[in-house]
Amino acid sequence: MDQVALIMEKAVMAAAEFNQFDQAATDRVVEAVFRAAFNARIRLAGMAVEETGMGVKEDKVLKNVLASLLVYRDIRGEKTAGVIGYDERLGITEIAQPLGPIFALTPVTNPTSTVIFKILICLKTRNPIVISPHGRATKCSCETARICYEAALAVGAPEDCVQWISEGSHDLTHRFMSHPNLALILATGGSGLVAAAYSSGTPAIGVGPGNVPVLIDRSADFPFAVSSIISSKTFDNGTVCASEQAVVVEKAVAEEVRAEFERQNCYFASPEETAKIEAAVINPKTGGVNPAIVGRPAAEVAKRAGLEPPAGTKIIIVPLDRVAADEPLSGEVLAPVLAFYAEEDYPAACNRCISLNYRGGLGHTAAIYANDEERIRQFGGLMNAGRVVVNTPSSQGGVGGTFNTLPTSFTLGCGSGGKNITTDNISAKNLINIKKVCRRRPNAMWDEFETGKFLDDSFDADSLPGEYGRNF
Predict the structure, then answer these.
(1) Which of 122, 140, 161, 241 is flagged as catalytic?
(2) Which of 192, 280, 294, 339 is most buried as measured by Cβ atoms within 10 A of its Cβ?
(3) Same domain, 315 and 275
């Protein structure tokens, strides 16, 4: 039996056993896994930085805290087994059912935290999980899965409820994704991989890229806005897909905002330097971002570009006036590099944010700093984004749980704009089938029909011909 068949056979057996667990048994497993992952947060963060060469250890520790402690806090009280709701008046009982084996693709940018997160929400919903880590984060991802699995087994979880692939390939991944016994794919990774998941024939929850625009309105507190943006864009060296990619301001306040960024140790590149940064950041063969700069600090990006910004520079900012495929720095760059646009007025600034949205971040995240409620309302209505964060660092705001009450998640849905099934911050509620047991009840709709109040006074059922009338 080959690897795919063997792993899936074990997953199916685990699913059959897991289906018999009640809520109390399920919750014991989830709590044990959360505690084990939380206790290993520092070691796993160090492993991730060492293996991938990306990010900041302290920030990856915090990501592991978010993925374990905050996710557990979000889901611990959820009903995911047996009867989860009953409405006596309607006569409807809701019963939670597991989906079955889930195949989880995890990224190089957030490896250990995404593994923790996906294992917790799968076990909470009694779904066995098979982890397929990014090739450049295999060791730390597999170690994370091992820690979680052993903790689950220690409190009676089914054998093989967590499995992982230590040596993967594109062919192996595609064979898993199209396996007939697979229930769902949880795809977090590059757009090509997500597209493959959606075209596999298996139900999939994927995510799109996040080319996040942030509008600093003239009504904003500029020092606060700039400080928040810096805290977000430098968090783990910009590897969160919800991190800001472009700052948009009105020309009337552009110099004031620019001066504030410079005061807080950000460096604005000249046109000549921008060309050098583009050459260092963009892979000329693919037009995409050079993997060597992803998750690297601003000083290293500058060095690769042959620049010498002041010591302590936090972010490199490139002023641009176009959003286009042939303006690659107007797209997503998962490093401390920001585009900067100065527009004539507020409507033009909003239009620029929309263009950035469509450039590669449809349905993901947008941000605004403002103290004008009308402008906040307008911006929220205009953006095609699953989450619009207000006066909030977009990395932490998009992931949820810290600056707002969104569910903490490392898989951020982008809705139809990003070719995804939902705009949710994916969590346990997305991983159950809900069966409805419907008892016989009188439906008041028919009383309304008899009295002629079915819709409104303009509708008369007697006027419908023959079998379409009141006696249909």
Answers:
(1) 241
(2) 339
(3) yes
